[in-house]
Design brief:
three-stranded antiparallel beta sheet; Glycosyltransferase; mainly alpha; 5 strands
């Protein structure tokens, strides 16, 4: 081969190697960019995509969630385990003993020392829902274990409160006697009678809500304690049958409850319980229950409502819209049509919450807080915001891009932005420039209407002389860290006085809604498409 030919071959070889090197380097750069893009996609806040792992943690929400979770420990009755609240001790150890029942566990509902079964069961259902949807996010900020433990503290009580298929104990303590005393739970002296519902004294809404609590909790414990999960599911099914067979409102059967947790009807609880039982069992009969005659009778399709311990309509509509978003096997045409009615009604609720929607609700303060009633006003803003986060994530996970409100379109992030506005208001972005979550921020309530928080641990008080601490001008000696107080008036003022129970009293059910909301906002990820 001549010299010129060799030079030509060497030049071609060098050229070929050079282009190969360029292609390899380009491929490496492209791969690195793709991995970075994928990582950013997975760990970004939702913006049209569906991240499938928890993303960056929002520190403010993580801190608030950690605090809010502590309030359930403050409210625990019974012999405390791994107690992390230094000023709380054992209490209510003899609850239920007159009927040979152990009703020592459970939680006091608010600042008093009564265990009300109706709001307690709702608290458990909301905790379960939050864990099922956002357990991975709770886990990313080390709060999942606390949530599961708090839930089990309630469900242990509920199991014992249901000693036979058609009997459910719904209350421990007499509110009238309790409210005549101001004592720490550890030092209670008043009598603590228990109240039951049965076939003669019906309480459909309480039995159905308890069924919902146990059905949803059975899903929470399904993979971590299968025998306990099965026990919960058995109780849930028995209670639902009891609630449905012996229909009657507990407010009618037991008139004394009207002053405290009066029920406005039980149809919503029946649908709520059946919806949870369908998710827990995939038994077609429960789906038929909510989509056929009972749905037509109780669902209030096409009407907006406010989600709360008393009214489960909006929660049921969002929960059942899950099936519409993600699908389920074996659904008939008729069932699918009525499931669409639940979803359409959920959309009406969502459109009412969005401040820029043509159908936006007027039930909000000048600075945007959802505000419906004076007592525990934050329950509706927290409940609304939680449902909005859920619906936003259902849209993202199912790749549903648009929500239409009377011709105007909105994105999932609009719902998330609304939800954030509600919790940001609670955490300090409000005209009072204070947090309504005790312990959060530099300014928060000091005079919480709460017996245990207001009385020094070493105080020797009886029933009556404890009232000196209710009227004391000094701040609470034991901070109820994590307590969400009642909230502001409609004019956005707040009077931090211990005897102002309308505004300064916390409650477990409001805290459960706040925990659920914060769990949905603390970081971004997609919700699972099936609980089972």
């Amino acid at each position: 081969m001549g010299m010129e030919a060799q030079k030509e071959d060497q030049t071609k070889s060098k050229g070929w190697l050079w282009w190969l090197l360029v292609l390899v380097l380009a491929a490496m750069v492209f791969a690195a960019a793709a991995l970075t893009l994928l990582d950013n996609f997975k760990h970004s806040k939702p913006s049209g995509g569906v991240p499938d792992h928890p993303g960056p943690i929002v520190t403010e929400y993580a801190n608030a969630l950690e605090m809010a979770m502590q309030f359930f420990d403050i409210q625990k009755s019974g012999k405390l385990e791994n107690n992390r609240i230094w000023w709380r001790g054992d209490s209510g150890l003899q609850d239920g003993s007159e009927e040979d029942l152990d009703l020592s566990k459970g939680m006091y509902d608010a600042g008093d020392l009564v265990k009300f079964g109706f709001p307690m069961a709702f608290t458990a259902t909301i905790l379960s829902w939050a864990i099922l949807e956002y357990g991975d996010q709770m886990n990313s900020v080390k709060q999942l274990g606390y949530a599961q433990n708090s839930l089990k503290w309630i469900t242990d009580y509920l199991i014992n409160a249901h000693p036979s298929p058609n009997v459910l104990y719904i209350q421990v303590g007499d509110p009238r006697l309790d409210h005549k005393c101001w004592q720490r739970p550890e030092a209670m002296t008043e009598k603590r009678p228990i109240i039951q519902i049965n076939t003669s004294f019906q309480g459909t809404e309480v039995a159905a809500e308890t069924a919902a609590a146990m059905a949803s909790a059975s899903l929470v414990f399904k993979k971590i304690n299968s025998s306990y999960s099965n026990l919960l599911l058995m109780h849930a099914q028995q209670l639902f049958t009891f609630a449905d067979t012996y229909r009657g409102s507990y407010s009618v059967s037991i008139p004394q409850v009207q002053e405290f947790y009066n029920s406005t009807g039980y149809g919503d609880e029946l649908l709520w319980a059946a919806a949870w039982l369908y998710h827990a069992t995939r038994d077609e009969s429960y789906l038929s229950y909510v989509t056929e005659l009972n749905g037509q009778a109780f669902a209030n399709w096409g009407s907006s409502s406010w989600f709360s311990w008393d009214d489960k309509h909006a929660g049921t509509q969002v929960l059942l819209s899950r099936i519409s978003f993600f699908g389920a096997k074996g659904i008939s045409v008729a069932e699918n049509i009525n499931l669409q009615m639940y979803r359409k009604t959920a959309e009406i609720v969502m459109c009412g919450l969005l401040p820029d929607s043509p159908t936006s609700t007027s039930s909000r303060t000048e600075n945007g807080l959802i505000w419906v009633i004076e007592w525990h006003c934050l329950q509706h803003s927290m409940a609304s915001a939680f449902l909005a986060v859920l619906y936003s994530d259902y849209m993202l996970t199912s790749q549903t891009e648009t929500l239409y409100c009377d011709g105007k379109s909105f994105k999932p992030e609009d719902l998330r932005k609304f939800a954030m506005s509600q919790v940001d208001y609670v955490l300090g972005q409000n005209p009072m420039e204070m947090s309504y979550l005790v312990g959060y921020g530099s300014s928060y309530p000091q005079y919480v209407h709460h017996r245990g928080s207001s009385i020094p641990v070493d105080a020797k008080t009886g029933c009556k002389d404890g009232f000196e601490w209710l009227y004391s001008p000094k701040p609470n000696p034991n901070a109820a860290v994590g307590a969400l107080v009642g909230g502001p008036f409609f004019n956005e003022t707040y009077i931090d006085v211990r005897n102002n129970s309308m505004q300064t009293e916390p409650s477990t059910y409001n805290n459960a809604l706040l925990v659920a909301l914060l769990s949905g906002l603390v970081t971004s990820s997609s919700v699972v498409q099936s609980f089972s």
